[in-house]
Amino acid sequence: MSDQTKEVATLNTLIATLIDSVDGYEKSAGEVRGPSLAQSFTSRAQERRAAVTELQAAVRTAGGEPEDDGSVMAGAHRMFLNLKEVVTGTDDTAIINEIERGEDYLKAKFEAALKNVDLSPQARSAVQSAWTSVREGHDEMSQLKHSLN
Predict the structure, then answer these.
(1) Are 28 and 95 in contact (CB under 8 A)?
(2) What is the pLDDT of residues 57-75, one digit of tens each?
């Protein structure tokens, strides 16, 4: 596999997980009871959407076709969460716990990508820019989760 092909694959994996994040924040914004929390989730979704756009541009520059859908695993996870909601109901704490869990997963994906020495300067710049959003989102949700416990 060429470095360019690996780069496109890495970027597309990050794009898919960010799209999952956007979907999760948007769904959660509609589910939480607190309006300030809903606004925070909506803002985070918009920020992540901008990161997706930047990563998609990096994929095009690398000669690839950018991902435009979330991951299969996230689809399965959403189906489980929907079933869980029907059975147990949902509250803001449960939503925050799920978002924080997703942020942990996303953080790990980006940390692994940043260790990839084969990224071109443009790809690395796009990943680093998106990483800022991911790191801030992770830290915010982690603090929020721990303040509720």
Answers:
(1) yes
(2) 999 999 999 998 766 555 5
